[in-house]
Design goal:
Blueprint lengths: L1 H22 L7 E9 L5 E9 L2 H13 L1 H11 L7 E6 L2 H15 L7
């Protein structure tokens, strides 16, 4: 069952990414990607983790725009992915990429050249 959910997650992630890229136009300075998807075992609820690269104020705008288009996204996804139920999509910001970049910046700052002895 676990492997089936993983496959369903991958299919939903791929299809939803294509639908969002084609259907929703975000501001020019904002890059929106689906970072991950977790569907519940009963296939009724789906957490969609969205990564937003751009200005900080764009994150809330992206979430509200995705929420506004949720019904249309679900309808289009139901046409492409045949499941017993069409899952209810819940969009959440995933800032793991930004945290990773920040950690790398800190590590580079710590990498100060030392005097050879």
């Amino acid at each position: 069952m676990k492997h089936r959910l993983e496959r369903v997650n991958e299919v939903i992630k791929r299809e939803l990414s294509e639908i969002i890229a084609r259907e929703i136009n975000f501001t020019a300075q904002t890059l929106v990607t689906i970072h991950g998807v977790e569907i519940s075992p009963d296939l009724r609820q789906c957490q969609v983790f969205v990564s937003v690269i751009g200005k900080a104020e764009h994150k809330n705008r992206v979430l509200s725009e995705l929420a506004d288009h949720r019904v249309a996204l679900q309808r289009e996804m139901a046409k492409r992915v045949v499941l017993k139920y069409t899952p209810h999509l819940h969009f959440k910001i995933d800032d793991s990429i930004e945290r990773g970049s920040r950690v790398l910046e800190i590590m580079q700052d710590l990498d100060i050249p030392r005097d050879d002895r």
